[in-house]
Every structure is written in structure tokens, then in C-alpha cells.
TrEMBL record:
Residues 55-70 have a biased composition (Low complexity). Residues 247-278 form a coiled coil. Residues 477-702 form the B30.2/SPRY domain. The keyword Zinc-finger applies. This is TRI36 ligase. SMART domains: BBC (SM00502), BBOX (SM00336), RING (SM00184). CDD domains: Bbox2_TRIM36_C-I, FN3, SPRY_PRY_TRIM36. InterPro entries: B30.2/SPRY, B30.2/SPRY_sf, Bbox_C, ConA-like_dom_sf, COS_domain, E3_ligase_FN3/SPRY, FN3_dom, FN3_sf.
Length: 710
């Protein structure tokens, strides 16, 4: 016979740490009190409304939400749910049993089953705990008698006499179900939470929960494998009985394991004391070294102080002698009283030299010693940083590595890392970063605690380099710091825009994606038709497209990708008062070396082609970046051709009238020139043949989450 007292641990709610009250079965098969489920959901909604602050965790007096769960609040912020005064609306529940986020579905808490079996066991435990306290009859006149039975239909307890009165023979109440005295009245029939008027009569083997026939016919279990309730009852009871018998048969083995675990507990205590002693000895050594350094530093300061005081005292005594009737002046006054010339000259010659020195010293007064002790100020920044990193290093803990391919630096910094090894992965990470420049070479590290493997960092300075490093923590253990990765921010604030599908957009030759962040041109039949219409030579005009937002002032930066297969792409800026020329430009042909009306091929036009354009563009294509022909450009054509970066950037400074073209991956300027910024400036692109351009997406919190899931 199993003692009720021995199973107390199984009857405690993992949330409130008390005996279950109306327990609900979660989709993860853990049980939580009905009240606790509501309080946890309310706590999450309150935290969401308060912006996920630490103080919002205390909205429930019984439920404490761990700080590691707070980062999950951002994931449910998309639902935009608000707290209802009676029922929480959030469908995301953090199970206190398995510490996972559980989706409760559309019905939320209303879609959970009540665990009546567990409720009955808890009631039996309570009865055993209060065996001396009898359950009194609910219908006796005072004083009430001790009840002998409870009616499950009436949900009341009766003594023998009252039960006969209220359940007379030959009536419907005589058919009521009665049990021994209890305070736990559960319904006789388990009803479906999805269809409240239907009783459950089947068991879904996929979801592992009872369902009704309507759930199977047209509900969420329509395509699931189900079985009858009697078959599920028999199968599960046989499996449970078999497993229990197996565990009982292994009782001696279980006791041996318990004995071994008790020995391991004692060994753990001994080893922990030994580790404490070793740690104390390590710190004592540090204290000893610091104590010696402290004593030496204080002795040096004291010796310097005494030497300076002695020098200043001697100087003060010398100046004291310059006073009338005192010291050197007094002695000189007495010498002046000598009337014998020979004796006076003999004494006054040496005295006059001393008086002259005193006079010169008085004219250029300078203390004999410095009063400041700047030479004795210690720079302990590096030592302080080393001591701050002092922790238990574990050889088995993986060292994270920052992935430069997955990390991005655009409007914000997205830092991603991974643990390539197969050893234990850290539970939490600490990401540090600092700004690198000549003025602040010893800039302090900024620290961020992260529960995932990526982090978005905002509020970084433009045109600056930052160093990043990360380390992992698992309990009290930590890994060494990863290799530092240096990334550079854009030279100006990021400018956001989309491709304009109205102004000059040629829908026959260009194709935009629905979000208007990518444009593509195909070298197909439309291009052949365009070439066929040109009777002289083989020339086809470029297809232009601009951004839907203009720039009137300031300095701005944007980035984009050009597909490697692109044949010809031009990128740059155009002024609002020259847009018409952009879409009706006769010089825009495949070869700048030929004019249709000139009748000859000459290379003399090369030096003037780009300067004659009413806008500022550079040419890309065939995986190359072509620096335009200008007087300042290299004369050798080969030196003007650079490899095409994977990501290109453009920096427009309207105030200075300059535009720069960057390798956006390294934030390195490839080419800079002057631009006419007399009007509103628009990003401009031109494509010909097979080509595609994709605008760089801004870094957001959602982007971080998608990277973390990958």
C-alpha cells in the first residue's frame, strides 16, 4: 500500500509551491493551479505593458518570474493584447515545470483540461493530514453532526439522518452518486472545453488529450489519429501498471543508486570545501601582493614627502636670513660698522658674493620642491579590468566565436556568434563593446547580458570603429573571451527609402518586388525589341528608377546589393530639377565612344562623357566597379577597375556638395566626387540587360530574432 505522505512532492504546484488547487493540464503535460496559470499570464501581460521592466515582475504576490524569461516578452509584443480584468488574453505561457514557453492556442486558459484525478489524490492527502478533523453535516440543525457521506451531485455532505431526508427512496435524488465524506466535488462527466455541451469520448494520440466527436469531425483534431476512450483507458492503464511493476521490482537497484547519490553528496561537500580553501588561498596571495605593493608605494610617497619638506625648510631658512637684523642681512649690517678698510675689504668681498646670490634668488623666486605628487599616481585601469574578469574558467565550456558573416553594421549593429564545439553550451552570454579612436584609446567596455546568440545594439556613433567580444557563462563557470572583432559604422545616419514605382518607372523592362526593395531587369525579348528599333549601330537606352524619398539637407548614407550576374548597373544621385533629363537622356547608350550623329568612332569623348551627365552616377557590371574618367582619376584604365564589393554604399553630403561610393562591408570609400545639390536629391539607379539591385534592410529587433532562430 502506497502511503499518501510519501507522494507529497508530486502534489505540489511548481508555481506557488503549495498543494494543487483545481490543477490544469498544460500541453507539455505539467500541472499548474488554475489560479497560478492566470497569475502568470497576468504577470506577463503587465510586464509587456510596462515595457518588460524588472519592477513589473512583482505584480503577483505568489508568482516570481525569472529574469531569464523577460527577453521572451518581446516575442509576444506583436500580438498587441491588453489585459482583461477577468481573463488573461495572452496565449503564450511560460511553464514553471519545464521552463519553456507553451502556446495555449486561441482559447488560451479556457482550452485546458482540469485534472480531476490529481485533484482527488490531493483531497485524499488532505484528508489523511487532517484525519482528526471531521467533516460536518451541511444540513443538521446546530450543533451539526459528523457527516458520513457526501453527494457528488448535490455537492454537499450529510449525516445518515439528513441523507435519508434529502434523498428519499423512489425519487430522482435517490439515484445520486455518493461517496465518503469529502470537500472535493468533481463532475461525474468530463466535458470538452472546446464544445462545452459535449462530453469527451475519444482520445487524440497526437495531442495526447481527451476530445469529443465534434473535435474529430470538424475541429482542430480532424486529421489526427484518435481512439476510443475505453481503449485509451485500457492501454494507458496497462502501460502505467507495467512501468510501476518494473520500478517496484528494481527497488534494490533504486536503493543502491540512492546510497551512491548520498555518497556523491558528501563527496561534493568535501570537494566544495577544498575548492573554497583553494580560492581563499588564491585571494590571500593576491592580497599579499597588493599589500606589499601598497606598503612600497606608501614608503616611496613618505620618503619623497620628507625630502621635499627638508628642501623647502632649508629654503625658508635662507629667506629668513634676508630679513633685517636677522641672519645674512644682520651679519652684513654688522660688517658695515667696520672702519678699518683693509679688514672691511677682507670680509666684505666674500659677503658681497653671498648677498648677490640672495638678491638674484629673490628676483627669480622658485620653490625648492614641487608640492604635487603626480608622479606617484598609479594607472590601475588594466589591472582593474583583469580583476574584473577574474572568474572560474572551465575547460569544458565552449568559447563563442563572433561570426563576421552574420554580423551587420548599418542603422544598428547586429552581432551574432556561435559555439562551434560539441562540449557544454553556455546558458547565458555577456557581450562587450567599446569605441576605438585616438582620443579614447582606453575607452571602457560596455557590457550587455544576452540569453540568445545575437544582439542588436543601437545608439552607436557614426563613422566610428567598435570592438566586440563575447564570453559564455554556465552557472559559476565562464569561458574565456572570444577573439575581438572590429566593425565600422556608416559615415552618416542611414537613409531609408523604397524604389519609386511611379516617377519614370518602366514596368515593361523593370520588375519590382511587392515590398519595392528589389528591382530587376531581364535580358529578354523587350531588350531585343529595343535594339531592333535602333537603325544605326546596336545601342539601347538604360532603364532608370529612383528612390521614393528625397534629401534636402544634411549627410546621409544608404546601402544596397548588386547581383553578381548583373551586366550593367549605374548607381548614384540625381537632383529634382534634373529628373526629366534623367529619363530622356540621349547620351545614355551602351557605348560612350559613339554618337549616332557623328558617323565615326573616337576615344576623345571618354574624358567628357561622365562630366556631361546631368547627374552623378558610377558604373558597375560584370563583377567590377568602374571609377569614372575624371582629370584626377588614374590614366591607366586597369587601375580604374576594382572588384565589385558584395554590398555597396553611397554617402551624400548636401551641405558640402559631395557624394562618396563605399564598400559597405568594410565602410571604405572607393570613390568621391562633387555633386550638384541645388535641388532635392534622390537615390538613382539604372539597369540594362540581366541585372538586379536589392536595397539593404534596416536592422531591427525582429531581424535579430530571425537570426537567432537560424
Amino acid at each position: 500500500k502506497v502511503t499518501v505522505k510519501g507522494i507529497e512532492k508530486e502534489l505540489i504546484c511548481p508555481a506557488c509551491k503549495e498543494l494543487f488547487t483545481h490543477p490544469l493540464i498544460l500541453p507539455c503535460q505539467h500541472n499548474v493551479c488554475h489560479k497560478c496559470v492566470k497569475e502568470i499570464l497576468f504577470a506577463f501581460e503587465d510586464s509587456l505593458a510596462d515595457g518588460g521592466s524588472e519592477s513589473s515582475n512583482q505584480s503577483s504576490p505568489r508568482i516570481k518570474i525569472s529574469s531569464s524569461s523577460m527577453d521572451r516578452i518581446d516575442r509576444i509584443s506583436r500580438s498587441g493584447t491588453k489585459r482583461n480584468s477577468l481573463t488573461p488574453r495572452s496565449s503564450l505561457f511560460h511553464c514553471p515545470g519545464c521552463q519553456r514557453d507553451i502556446d495555449l492556442g486561441e482559447r488560451g486558459i479556457n482550452g485546458l483540461f482540469r485534472n480531476f484525478t490529481l485533484e482527488t489524490i490531493v483531497e485524499r492527502y488532505r484528508q489523511a493530514a487532517r484525519a482528526a478533523i471531521a467533516i460536518m453535516c451541511d444540513f443538521c440543525k446546530p450543533p451539526p453532526q459528523e457527516s458520513t457521506k457526501s453527494c457528488m451531485d448535490c455537492k454537499a455532505s450529510y449525516c445518515n439522518e439528513c441523507f435519508k431526508i434529502h434523498h428519499p427512496w423512489g425519487t430522482v435524488k435517490a439515484q445520486h452518486e455518493y461517496v465518503g465524506p469529502t470537500t472535493n466535488f468533481r463532475p461525474r462527466i468530463l466535458m470538452c472545453p472546446e464544445h462545452e455541451m459535449e462530453r469527451v469520448n475519444m482520445y487524440c494520440e497526437i495531442c495526447r488529450r481527451p476530445v469529443c466527436h465534434l473535435c474529430k469531425l470538424g475541429g482542430c483534431h480532424a486529421n489526427h489519429r484518435v481512439t476510443t476512450m475505453s481503449t485509451a483507458y485500457k492501454t494507458l492503464k496497462e502501460k502505467l501498471s507495467t512501468d510501476i511493476e518494473y520500478l517496484i521490482s528494481k527497488e534494490s537497484e533504486v536503493k543502491a543508486h540512492i546510497t551512491q547519490l548520498e555518497l556523491l553528496q558528501k563527496e561534493t561537500e568535501c570537494n566544495s570545501e577544498r575548492a573554497k580553501e583553494e580560492a581563499s588561498q588564491s585571494f590571500e596571495k593576491l592580497f599579499h601582493v597588493l599589500g606589499e605593493k601598497k606598503s612600497a608605494a606608501l614608503r616611496a610617497i613618505e620618503a619623497s614627502k620628507n625630502l621635499r619638506l627638508e628642501e623647502l625648510q632649508m629654503q625658508a631658512e635662507e629667506y629668513q636670513g634676508l630679513l633685517e637684523n636677522n641672519g645674512l642681512v644682520g651679519y652684513a649690517q654688522e660688517v658695515l660698522k667696520e672702519t678699518d678698510p683693509s679688514c672691511f675689504v677682507q670680509t666684505a668681498k666674500q659677503l658681497h658674493v653671498r648677498i648677490q646670490k640672495a638678491t638674484e634668488s629673490l628676483k627669480s623666486f622658485r620653490p625648492a620642491a614641487e608640492t604635487t605628487f603626480e608622479d606617484f599616481v598609479m594607472d590601475i585601469a588594466k589591472q582593474e579590468e583583469i580583476l574584473g574578469d577574474l572568474s572560474f574558467h572551465s575547460n569544458g565550456l565552449e568559447i563563442p566565436e563572433i561570426s563576421e558573416e552574420r554580423s551587420r553594421m548599418y542603422n544598428k549593429a547586429l552581432i551574432s556568434w556561435e559555439c562551434p564545439g560539441k562540449t557544454d553550451s553556455p546558458d547565458i552570454y555577456v557581450l562587450e563593446y567599446r569605441k576605438l579612436n585616438r582620443e579614447e584609446e582606453s575607452a571602457t567596455w560596455q557590457e550587455i547580458e544576452v540569453c540568445s546568440k545575437s544582439k542588436v545594439i543601437s545608439d552607436l556613433d557614426d563613422d566610428s570603429s567598435y570592438a566586440f567580444r563575447v564570453r559564455g557563462y554556465k552557472g559559476s563557470m565562464c569561458s574565456p573571451w572570444s577573439r575581438e572583432v572590429i566593425l565600422r559604422t556608416p559615415p552618416a545616419p542611414v537613409f531609408s527609402f523604397l524604389f519609386d514605382d511611379k516617377c519614370g518607372y518602366n514596368s515593361e523592362h523593370l520588375q519590382l518586388n511587392p515590398r519595392r526593395t528589389s528591382v530587376e531587369s531581364g535580358a529578354g525579348f523587350p531588350l531585343l525589341l529595343g535594339s531592333e528599333r535602333m537603325q544605326v549601330g546596336c545601342y539601347t537606352t538604360l532603364d532608370y528608377i529612383i528612390g521614393d524619398t528625397g534629401i534636402a539637407k544634411g549627410k546621409h548614407f544608404w546601402a544596397f546589393h548588386v547581383e553578381a550576374y548583373s551586366y550593367l548597373v549605374k548607381v548614384g544621385v540625381v537632383s529634382s530639377n534634373k529628373i526629366q533629363k534623367l529619363f530622356h537622356n540621349t547620351h545614355d547608350v551602351t557605348s560612350p565612344r559613339y554618337e549616332q550623329d557623328s558617323g565615326h568612332d573616337s576615344g576623345s569623348e571618354d574624358a567628357f562623357f561622365d562630366s556631361s551627365q546631368p547627374f552623378t552616377l558610377v558604373t558597375l557590371g560584370m563583377k567590377k566597379f568602374f571609377i569614372p574618367t575624371t582629370p584626377a582619376a588614374p590614366k591607366d584604365p586597369a587601375s580604374r577597375i576594382l572588384p565589385l564589393p558584395s554590398c555597396l554604399g553611397i554617402c551624400l553630403d548636401c551641405d558640402k556638395g559631395k557624394v562618396g561610393f563605399y564598400d559597405a562591408g568594410r565602410m571604405k570609400c572607393l570613390y568621391e566626387c562633387e555633386a550638384d545639390c541645388s535641388g532635392i536629391m534622390y537615390p538613382a539607379f539604372a539597369l540594362m540587360g540581366g541585372a538586379a539591385v536589392h536595397l539593404e534592410e534596416a536592422v531591427t529587433a525582429k531581424y535579430e530574432e530571425s537570426h537567432d532562430n537560424n
